[in-house]
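Sanity check. The docking grid for magnesium ion depends on where the pocket ends up, so I'm generating a full predicted complex first rather than guessing from homology. Inputs follow.
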Amino acid sequence: MAIQWYPGHMHKAQKDIRELLPQVDLLIEVLDARIPYSSENPAIEKIRGDKPCIKILSKSDLADPAVTAAWQVHLEQQRGVKTFATTTDEPQKIKQLLELCRRMFPAKDAGVKTINAMIVGIPNVGKSTIINTLADRIIAKTGNEPAVTKSQQRINLGSGIVLFDTPGILWPKIENPNSSYRLAVTGAIKSTAMEYDDVGFYAADYLIKAYPELLKERFQLESIPNTELAFLEVAALRRGALSAGGRINLHKICELLINELRAGTVGRITLETPEMVVQEKIEIAEAQAKKDADAAERKRRFKAGSRNPSESELAAQEANNAKRAPRGSRPPKATKPRKSK
Ligand SMILES: Nc1nc2c(ncn2[C@@H]2O[C@H](COP(=O)(O)OP(=O)(O)OP(=O)(O)O)[C@@H](O)[C@H]2O)c(=O)[nH]1
Ligand SMILES: [Mg+2]
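Predicted complex below; grid placement will be based on this.
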């Protein structure tokens, strides 16, 4: 299943970001620390050009700390990129972001001009929360569901930095199917645009391989079954996710698993590592190359046109026709060609 969610306001927001970009000095892209690759907007990377960029790894309290550190090293290999891991548990650390902005523009620090920074990122990643922490007051509306911010907002922090809050955006085509699932698991996709069962199976499959110990502890299991279905069944029994008549209710356990993952109660979990993503990119490129080669071959065959059948093929066809003709039937009478007037 391909999960796509690209409502009209996101299309408009993307256009607005593109228009505003030339006027800003700095781009702050907020990524979800649990999915730093899947939450990175490929369009932003294209339109950013040489503009300096801070990539914030938000909600790092929910992510695996060792993997967050690995992602920071990986992301900083990109030109002009600095990274910063944040969590609402450490508001003082979020405030260090302002220092980092000033360090990136030493000339402007002398009060010559204001630094204009635009905050962009996927829905529900924590953009408005960061702005409120930086401003020390509630300026931007926040909420634990995607698409809370619906339009752009300019916020003057008063210390030589102006921030632009923007609505969370996804993109029209999510190329990597794993990314769609990871965005759905972490809560960036509206619940009406995804199926809990499908996403729950995806999450269970990943977790039994990547974080079996956390699952054992959370669901009080002696050992972890080796298929996602078997795990979901025992988890459902543990949690009483049953329908009338005592049948296992897979929908209920999938929803419960996803909600617990989002809330961080299963533990600190990251859904992708730099190594996994490198491998996935290779697989996607290979699949695309095969698709392109098949299309080129079809085109070539079409252009070469149809060939004449060989003698043996003609003979086989004739024998086939004779076999099919009902006994005693006559070949149709040849119709006289009409006289042309
Ligand atoms: N655990 C955790 N939750 C966070 C963190 N930052 C934000 N949140 C929660 O994530 C939810 C979304 O936060 P928002 O700031 O509204 O996200 P947004 O990116 O502005 O979302 P949209 O405007 O919908 O695009 C809220 O419930 C926040 O409390 C964090 O560091 N850790
Ligand atoms: Mg917002």
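Relevant for the grid: The pocket of magnesium ion (ligand 2) is lined by residues 127-128, 140, 148-149 (CB under 6 Å).
Also worth noting: The chain has a mean pLDDT of 90.
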